[in-house]
Specification:
36% of the residues lie in helices and 19% in strands. It contains 13 helices and 16 strands.
Amino acid sequence: MNKFLSFIYIYIYIVPQGTACAAGTQNRIHIYRLIALFIVCYPTIIGDYPVIGILDSPITRFLKSSGIDKKDTMIPSSYVKFIEYTGAHVLRIPYQANEARLDYFLKNINGLLFTGGSQLVRQEKTKMMSEYGRKVKYLLKKAIEINENGNSFPVYGICNGFSQIVCSLSTNDTNICDVLTYKHHKAERKKIQFTHPLIQPFSSMNKQITDRLQKENQLLFYHSLYLEPKFFQQNRLLNSQFEISSQSSNYQDIQFISSFHHKNYPIFADVFHPEKAAFEWKPNYISHKKESIFFSFYIAQYFIEQASKNSQTTSEELIQDFLEFKEDATLLETPTLSYQSIYLFKYNSTYLQ
């Protein structure tokens, strides 16, 4: 009943009626209605709600030049909305935290998201993993252990998060980062070619949606590191754990893997940006077609459904002090970036230990 009332409220009071409005406004109305339908149709979460940890990241070079402290961190707001519209809660995971603190956070969440952005995968001069990359590697290792112990724990990487997951599989003997190829990048909408038969997370997707996404340039790509299929097939560390779920090609006709999924656990990553379709409006290269929106909803739903299978509970301390992280963050409009806005977190050493 609450979902039905939410639908009525959004559809009648929030969504303007009539056709006498600009095209951009009509697009937003269309999306609001889709979100309202999603609220009604989305299945009830097991328990109260899952809690998803989002790893924050260093501020970009554009923000460094604006006088913001280089120790501060950020999370683009579209990733927070991407999780919250499913009914899940978001907990910020500070990448600067020590391992003991990261362990504490991991015990209090039901899934983990690595965002896109300009975070270094490894140091350019030394080729060693960056601090951010080392924390991703540690968290991924711990997430795999949770899954191995029989407690489903999903990990999802988007764009840079895809590259970070690939690099995190490196061992003392093998640096998997070398399979990633650097290419000049630009933002572009592209088609996607799903693996057939469809595998997770796309195996239950509506055929009309998959067909349209394979025929039209709707998905946004904005990345410089590519994993080509031939390098994936040659690398035993990769192909023994993951399987390709989709491929795409860039404006130079270079074929690359656009998504993969772990063979045994709910660990998956995409190079494209599903979160932008519904929640980013500034760049004019983002598709807001209904197929893009439904695709975004579908991926978010899959992620949260996996998280709802996890049995870990959040401590009262985190619920009270950290879960509502927006109270401790500054919502900053970012006209020079490809984000509408970011959550900016001031450096706080007490939060890291």
